Amino acid sequence: MGVMIEGRYQVEDPAPDTSAQGAYERARSTLRHWITPDGPFSPDPGRYHLFVAWNCPWAHRALLVRAVLGLQDVITTSVALPGRTDQGWVFEDEPLLGARSLHEVYARQSPPYTGRVTVPVLWDMHTEQIVSNESADIARMLCLAFDPQRRLVPAALVDEIDRWNGMIHTRINNGVYRAGFARTQTAYDDAVHDLFAALDAVDQHVAGHTTLTGETLTEADLRLFPTLARFDVAYHYAFKCNLARLSDYAHLWDYARALYALPGVADTVAFDIYKAGYFSPSELRNPLGIVPAGPRIDWSAPTRRTLRLP
Fold it and tell me: Are residues 160 and 113 part of one domain?
C-alpha cells in the first residue's frame, strides 16, 4: 500500500503492519473533520464527493449508507479500478479533479499529508480538501448530516449502536484481517477463534431479533454487512477463516440475505471483484495468483425476515 510523506507519494510503506508477535495492527486514519450545520463543513447537497473502491470493505460502509438513505444524487462518487497498482488506487473515466490516482487527491491536502493512501475519502468540492478518510466517521456523518430523521442512528439507540459497532469492528470487520494477515501460528489461532466466537454470538442474537438492535435497521447492521458479503467468496479461503462459512449459519445467513435484499444494497456489492482482489498475487497468501472458480452462493434466496428503514 502506498504512503504519502509530507505530500509526496511513496510506492512502499516503510512502516510495518504487524507487531513483534506477528499480530496484524491496522493503521489509524488521521484526517477526521466533521460535517455539521455550523460548518466549516456544512451539509450542502452536491458539495461532497466520495472516492471509493469496490474491493474495500471500509469504503463499502460509506456506499451502503449512501444507498440505503438514497443519497446518490446528494453525494457523488468516483470508483477506483479493481486492484491496486504501483500508483495505488487508480481511476478511469473522467475522474474528479483530473486525478488519475488517489494519491493525487491526497497531494492536494493542506498542510501536506503524511500517511497511508486509503479509501474511502470524503472530499469537499467547495474548499478543495479532504473532510475525512475514516470510514466510521464518514458513515456516521452521512447518517446525521443528510438525514434529518436520523433513521439509521435514532437517538434512543445510539449507545446500543455504538456498542455493536465497537464489537463488530474489533472482532469481525478487523478480525478477518487479524486472521488473514497473522504472521505466527499463535497470532492466527487467537484471531480466528475470537472471530468465530463473535460470529457465533451474532448468529445467536439474530435468531431472536430481526436486526442487531432488535427490530430497527441501524448503522450497526450496515457496518457488519461488508464483512458478511465478502466472507464466503474471500475470507473463508484467502484469509483462512475456515471454521465455518457464512452460509453455514442458519440465522446469520438469513439476516445477511435480508440486508442484501434492501433497496440499493445489491448495487454496492461486487462478488467477482472481491474474489479477484483477495486472491490477487501475494507472496505470502497466494503466490500464483490463481482465483478459484467457486463458491456458488445464492444471495437472492428467500429470507424469513424483512428489513426496512423506519
Answer: no
207 and 87 within one domain: no
Task: Say which CATH number the domain at 81 has.
Answer: 3.40.30.10
Q: What distance in Å separates the CA atoms of residue 159 and residue 23, rounded to the nearest whole number?
A: 30
Residue 303 lies in a domain: no
| 56 included as an active-site residue | yes
**Is 24 a known active-site residue?**
no
Give the number of domains in the chain: 2
Are 255 and 189 members of one domain?
yes
Of the residues 48, 106, 113, 177, only one is catalytic, namely 177
pTM: 0.94
Q: Which structural domain, as residue segments, surrounds residue 34?
A: 3-145
Whether residue 144 contacts residue 152, with contact meaning beta carbons closer than 8 Å, is answered with no
Q: Give pLDDT tens digits for 206-259.
A: 999 999 999 999 999 999 999 999 999 999 999 999 999 999 999 999 999 999
Over residues 2-38, the pLDDT tens digits come to: 899 999 999 877 655 666 667 767 677 789 999 999 9
Determine, yes or no, domain membership for 292.
no
DSSP 124-158: ETTTTEEEE--HHHHHHHHHHHS-TT-TTS-GGGH
The beta-strand segments (E) located in the chain are 3-5, 8-10, 48-53, 75-80, 115-116, 121-124, 129-132
